[in-house]
Design a protein that fits this description.
- By secondary structure, the chain is mainly beta.
- The strands form two sheets. The chain has a three-stranded antiparallel β-sheet, with no helix packed on it. It has a two-stranded antiparallel sheet with strand order 2-5.
- A hairpin with a 2-residue loop joins strand 3 and strand 4.
- The chain starts with a strand and ends with a strand.
- The mean pLDDT is 92.
Length: 71
C-alpha cells in the first residue's frame, strides 16, 4: 500500500501559536483519506495534515470544514 500525505493551510485571523486547533469536515472524506493532525502552524494559520491510505493519487473536490481553536 502506498501512503501519501498532504497539507491544507487555512488562514484564521487572530490565532496565536500555543493553542489547540480542531477541524471537522462538513461531509465525508473520500474513502481511504483521513485527517492525520490539526495544529496551529504559525500566527493566523492552521495546518490540516491528511493521509491517503490508498494506492492511488487522489484530487478531491473542496470540502468546507468547521474549525475550532482554544487559546
Amino acid at each position: 500500500v502506498l501512503f501519501r500525505s498532504g497539507y491544507c493551510d487555512i488562514t484564521v485571523n487572530g490565532i496565536q501559536t500555543g493553542g489547540i486547533a480542531h477541524a471537522s469536515p462538513t461531509e465525508d472524506l473520500l474513502s481511504g483519506i483521513s485527517i492525520a493532525s490539526v495544529r496551529i502552524l504559525q500566527a493566523n494559520t492552521i495546518r490540516i495534515s491528511f493521509i491517503n491510505a490508498t494506492a492511488n493519487a487522489v484530487n478531491p473536490a473542496p470540502i468546507p470544514f468547521h474549525v475550532a481553536v482554544i487559546q
